[in-house]
Amino acid sequence: MTIAVQRERAWYLNRWNQLVLGVIAMMAISSPQYVWTLFTGPLNQKLGTSLAQLQWTFSLLIILQTWLSPFQAYLVDRFGPRLLISIGALLSGGSWLLSAYVDNIWALYFTYGVLGGFGTGIIYVGIIGLMVRWFPDRRGLAAGLAAAGYGFGAFFTSFPIDSMIKSSGYAHTLVVWGVIQAVIGVAAAQWLRLPPPDYSVRNLAPAAAIATAQSKRDYSPREMLQNPIFYLLFVMMSLMSTSGLMVTSNVGPFAKEFGVADALVLGMAALPLSLTLSRVTNGLTRPFFGWVSDQIGRETTMALAFSLEAVAILILFMFIDRPALFVILTGLVFFGWGEIFSLFPSTLTDTFGPKFAATNYGFLYIAQGIGSIFGGPVAALLKQATGSWTTVFIVVAALDIVTAVLAITVLRSLRRRHFASG
């Protein structure tokens, strides 16, 4: 066996190790977003705020996680994933520790929102950028599995955190789980590495190559920002982010308002059971639809998944006051939504090449911050203005349908011309 073959096999094995470490790091930072709704009640009581005021904390978390992602991705590229992912984990965990001691809304904005958002953003965009480089032949699947760690991680924390809040208070819970987040994230980061400059994968599957056309060259961030495909993807991701984040940030208030939060389903309270199931479906959908898109193409998969999300949102609203259906349908909503975190980065990297994948995706990931504003405080204000959630649900379902149509028509046409032009 030649040295070249040994080296190739070693790197091939290592990329799967990198994927496992990336998933672990993502799981460590999923709770700040996905169990936030469990803290809204105690924090409202402690700080004396309105729901709309409190939800700006959630929006700041997503905004800082996303709007600074080009800079965060640049730092990862500049200093390497080991150092930056470690820093991100310390910031994320530290934000929970500091949040335990705040006594006003502005302090909460800074600790949970700003520090937490910057820390989780470094890890998220860094890991996704790393995976699309390691897996040019399975880009949708790899991005989906990495993103699944972020969506699935709170599966292990929803019930323990809910139980600890009830037994020991939210402040103690923030301290304990903040330390856990930091330790796991830092540990996983110690073995993360970029692929070598000459890294390539032999025997790219012909079917995958046909289904997911890839750019013949790498586009720098400056070049990408001059291409209309980027802006179309940005609008589409903003619309889809609004839909899922509306449910993510408000599922706790939904459950309380419609009287299902503490109703028993299979012997468990409906709200934490819903959050746990949603973490499973939110995790599974990312590699599943990522794999599907590797087989049948990105745009077709987008149209199918986004249409599913629209239907799930409307059916959820129809049966939101029935505990068992509330649990099942919130899970279905997240299955129709979470795939955006595999489909959009893989589509972007296919279109503009892997060399600048992390920084390029950093610019696209800003769309998640746009969605957090419309899905969080704007949705709460719309509900406050209309007196019900009806208009909110109808609007976000319509956004899903519009995005599905854009994928199968405008995006498909633009990308075909892009690849044909070289």
Q: How would you explain this protein's 3D organization?
A:
- This protein has 422 residues and is mostly helical.
- The chain has a single domain, classed as MFS general substrate transporter like domains (Growth Hormone, Chain: A, Up-down Bundle).
- Strand 1 and strand 2 form a beta hairpin.
- Helix 7 packs across helix 18.
- 58% of the residues are buried.
- About 1% of the residues have low confidence.
What quaternary form is this?
single chain
CATH class (first level) name: Mainly Alpha
CATH topology: Growth Hormone, Chain: A
Give the overall pLDDT as a whole number.
88
Fold blueprint:
Layout: H1 3-28, H2 31-34, H3 36-47, H4 51-66, H5 69-79, H6 81-99, H7 105-134, H8 139-152, H9 158-168, H10 170-189, H11 206-211, H12 221-224, H13 228-257, E1 264-265, E2 268-269, H14 270-296, H15 298-318, H16 323-337, H17 340-352, H18 357-386, H19 390-420
Antiparallel strand pairs: 1-2
Helix pairs in contact: 1-7, 1-8, 1-10, 3-4, 3-13, 4-7, 4-18, 5-6, 5-7, 5-18, 6-7, 6-10, 7-8, 7-18, 8-14, 8-17, 9-10, 13-16, 13-18, 13-19, 14-15, 14-16, 14-17, 15-16, 15-19, 17-18
